[in-house]
């Protein structure tokens, strides 16, 4: 009887641990996310309406991309608010589940994924599509943050600190490379190295690891179609009707926008000249319609979220929350940097979305859920002292 009572008490205690947080969320982050999501709907409608009218896959419905994004936003925004109310330590207890599910999905997509543009990166589930690599990015991050918070004193050891993390990073990045999706694999590798640094790994070992990663990147980047992408990135005029076409159209859009832009819905490049104008290259359409000022304002809003995320990480009361807040902020900021870097010709062309603005259901849901975690952690941050 005593043993049963003890077990019952243990269950009750665990349920109590899954409790609502009592602090206040960082309202400035919540407000900025809300503005970006609302503006994203406006931009998706503006960038996609004409294309969707002429695209059979959208059933010639000009509202096709807007309606799809709105459905994901209606699901994702309340999900973010709900997650912000839940104790983020619940996520730590599910670390193995998140990583395990991510790995299973990455394996499944190789066999039953939708073949699009020469790669298998999407899974069709009940009439909707999900991109497992987007989920894996955060699944890996949660697992790493949890491990490093629980093995704080072992992170200087290669065997007990870095090696288990390298195995996890290698599994996720390797499966993503098989899709093939090198850009996402590089992002996952970068995130992993940054988290290892924040987690307290030996910086000398990290330098060696980074060096190996750079060499590996250049080897793979100069193989097959990737070599063509690099050449078009460095000089798109060499093949203006082929591999350099998209980047040149992006230049035309950004350049013609000038300082103040042509005005909402007045983009010329979206009239079937630029592909993926509603998704990967939406920032170019944004700059064409709202100019340098509009682009700068959006960048500043992204920068504010990253800044507040770092502040939350520094003020968090425990190691897991601190690492997780830093990880979310870094992933978010790096994704923004990669997308805008591609659109402006700073980086080779990849398929990374612009958070909250690009059309893309998986990306929107995953980043809203991640922001929910960041807001939850903000409830546990120490208040600013005078």
How would you characterize this protein structure?
The protein is built from 14 helices and three strands. It is globular and about 55 Å long. The protein is mainly α and 386 residues long. Strands 1-2-3 form a three-stranded antiparallel sheet. The protein is 68% helix and 3% strand.
What is the compact description of this entry?
With 386 residues, the chain is mainly alpha-helical.
Let me know the number of strands: 3
* Rg over C-alpha atoms, rounded to the nearest angstrom: 22 Å
Helix count, DSSP H or I runs of 4 or more residues: 14
Percent of residues in β-strands: under 5%
Strand arrangement within the widest β-sheet reads 1-2-3
The major beta sheet can be summarized as:
3 strands, antiparallel
Question: How is the secondary structure organized here?
Answer:
Elements: H1 2-17, H2 27-53, H3 64-85, H4 89-93, H5 95-112, E1 114-116, E2 119-125, E3 128-130, H6 132-150, H7 158-177, H8 182-198, H9 203-221, H10 225-234, H11 245-257, H12 282-315, H13 319-343, H14 361-378
């Amino acid at each position: 009887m005593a043993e049963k009572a003890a077990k019952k008490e243990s269950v009750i205690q665990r349920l109590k641990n899954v409790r609502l947080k009592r602090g206040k969320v960082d309202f400035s982050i919540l407000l900025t996310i809300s503005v970006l999501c609302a503006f994203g709907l406006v931009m998706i409608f503006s960038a996609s309406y004409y294309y969707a009218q002429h695209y059979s896959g959208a059933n010639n419905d000009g509202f096709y991309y807007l309606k799809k994004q709105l459905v994901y936003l209606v699901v994702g925004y309340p999900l973010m608010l709900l997650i912000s109310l839940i104790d983020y330590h619940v996520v730590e207890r599910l670390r193995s589940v998140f990583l395990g599910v991510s790995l299973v999905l990455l394996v499944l997509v190789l066999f039953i994924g939708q073949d699009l543009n020469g790669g298998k990166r999407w899974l069709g589930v009940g009439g909707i599509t999900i991109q497992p690599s987007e989920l894996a990015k955060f699944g890996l991050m949660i697992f790493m943050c949890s491990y490093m918070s629980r093995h704080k004193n072992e992170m200087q050891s290669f065997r007990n600190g870095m090696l288990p993390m390298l195995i996890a990073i290698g599994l996720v990045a390797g499966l993503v490379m098989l899709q093939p999706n090198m850009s996402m694999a590089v992002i996952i590798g970068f995130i992993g190295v940054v988290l290892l640094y924040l987690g307290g790994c030996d910086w000398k070992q990290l330098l060696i690891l980074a060096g190996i990663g750079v060499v590996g990147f250049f080897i793979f980047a100069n193989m097959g179609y990737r070599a063509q992408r690099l050449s078009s990135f460095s000089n798109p005029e060499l093949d203006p009707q082929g591999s350099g076409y998209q980047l040149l159209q992006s230049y035309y859009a950004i350049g013609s926008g000038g300082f103040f832009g042509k005005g909402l819905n007045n983009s010329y490049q979206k009239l079937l000249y630029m592909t993926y104008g509603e998704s990967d290259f939406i920032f170019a359409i944004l700059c064409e319609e709202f100019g340098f000022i509009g682009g700068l304002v959006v960048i500043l809003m992204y920068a504010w979220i990253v800044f507040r995320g770092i502040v939350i990480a520094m003020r968090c009361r425990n190691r897991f929350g601190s690492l997780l807040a830093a990880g979310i902020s870094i992933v978010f900021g790096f994704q923004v940097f990669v997308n805008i870097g591609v659109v402006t010709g700073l980086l080779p062309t990849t398929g990374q979305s612009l958070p909250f603005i690009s059309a893309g259901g998986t990306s929107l849901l995953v980043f809203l859920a991640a922001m929910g975690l960041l807001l939850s952690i903000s409830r546990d941050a120490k208040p600013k002292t005078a």
